[in-house]
Amino acid sequence: KEKVKKICEVLRKETLDPAKKEGDQIIAKAKRDAEKIIEDAKQKAAKIHEETKRKIEEERNVFQASINLACKKSLEMLRQEIETKLFNPELKSLLSKELNEPKVVAELISAIVTAIQKEGLEGDLRAIVSKAVKLEAVNQALLKGIETRLKGNSVELGALKGGAQVKMVDHNLTIDLSEEALKSLLASYVRDDFRSIVFASNV
User: Fold this and answer.
1) pLDDT tens across 127-150, in order?
2) How far apart are CA 133 and CA 165, in angstroms?
3) pTM assigned to the model
4) Do residues 42 and 3 both lie within one domain?
């Protein structure tokens, strides 16, 4: 009985203990491997998450930039549309009406001739107005003494839409306050103010 016990003890030490130890080592290694796999998976998942987040952010930025650009283009098109269909016609209508009024035209001519006189410039002057204006009414509305400075003592009809031109014949110089000239001049000054009123804020 004692011998059997010893034999069992020897077998345990020689087979079971090494097997148990090896099993423990295998389990420990498996545990370490599992932990490493889990950690690697976590890191990979975190990396994928960050990469996905970065791509989403990039796409969002690109989308936002595209939206902003589209808004700016749309607003600029709207500005141009309003200028073309509202501002320009209104300005033209206003000028056409005012610059075909005999009194207004006479005031323009009087102002130009007076300025020429103040500069001490001599020579023949020709004042040209639109055919839509009544010639006699313009002559009557001129400041005293202005009519006598004009060639033929009268303004002349010409191919103007409105306003007036004063030609300094001897100097080959034309002072242009016609409708087209004033429209161009006024538009360059008024357009920015018009835009700032209609479009109070920029995109």
Assistant:
1) 999 898 888 999 899 988 888 888
2) 13
3) 0.51
4) yes
Give the end of a domain, one of 83, 98, 113.
Answer: 98
Q: Count how many domains the chain has.
A: 2
For tokens 């994928």, the residue is 48
Task: Give tens-digit pLDDT for 29-47.
Answer: 888 888 899 998 899 989 9
Residues 90 and 178 in one domain: no
Q: Residue 42 falls within a domain, yes or no?
A: yes
Task: Give long-range contacts, CB 8 A cutoff, 24+ apart: 163-166.
Answer: 163/95, 163/99, 163/105, 163/108, 163/129, 163/130, 164/105, 164/108, 164/109, 164/112, 164/127, 164/128, 164/129, 165/127, 165/128, 166/109, 166/112, 166/113, 166/116, 166/125, 166/126, 166/127, 166/128
